[in-house]
Request: fold
Amino acid sequence: MKYFEITVITTSEAQELVADCFFQLELEGVSIIDKEDLINLNPECHRWDYIEDGIMESYGEGALVRGFSTVEDYPKVFKELTEEFNALKKNSQGFINVGSLEMTKREIEGDDWLNTWKEYFKPIPIGDVVICPRWIDYPKKPNEVVVNINIGMAFGTGEHETTSMCVELLQDFDLNGMTIYDIGCGSGILGITAIKLGAKEAIMSDIDEIAVTASIENAVLNGVADSCDISQKDLLNGAVKSCDLVVSNITAEVLVLMAKDMAELLTTGKPLVLSGILADRVDKIMTAYGEWFTKTKQIQHGEWCGITFVRK
Reply:
């Protein structure tokens, strides 16, 4: 079967927003190619033995988001992507530079893209946690926790700074026996990671049906499905029991709206881990959460920040 490989030119800060447009249309093999992901890796968490000559130059400038559509479906896909990108440009104006969002396509055979897009995904070490695509047989080291992910269905591959910072910050805690709540779970990386780090239960929710399906599949893949409560919810709409730790990787604007609800989930002394926050939005987060939480740690990868709070 013939496919079109669709490539969209965007920016580092908008890459996941663009990828989400692909996911909404359930396109296959969505991948992000961004030189900044290599440049901004935290050296304390990501260690390179070497970088192949020319690899940085091969990435080019800006970020590329790619996905695949059958030739037959392409006219409909092109129309719907155009509508999604027009809405993204309008809604992001003054907040996030989304770039040109120029689309190109090339025709390829099915077997080509099935093999080619997988080449972009490698195991990602983040402290003692390794996020690994399911098709790679990774030789686990004694001190490592491996989280296998079926990449291609939903948000969250571990590559983006916002996800990797959450995984990094979760390792600051002794999660043994904890109940954690992952709000906006995407592909389930954070909740599954918490279970593999010793948490007793991970309550995971997302507004996107595809994300929920992906999280369930990944929980099964990692053998932790019995410890995960995964459901489709509108953020905090639909109360859950109090928990020992909350983690959420969502945009700062949404996190601001959730501050009071977050506070109601946690008792005094319990931690909150937030990411998805552009550096120039940190003050807004501090204003929104300062009434109920005390900041204990802040890290930054590239333009993005992750913050740990404790409930007052």
Notes: The chain has two domains: 2-120, 124-311. Residues 74-92 form the longest helix (19 residues).
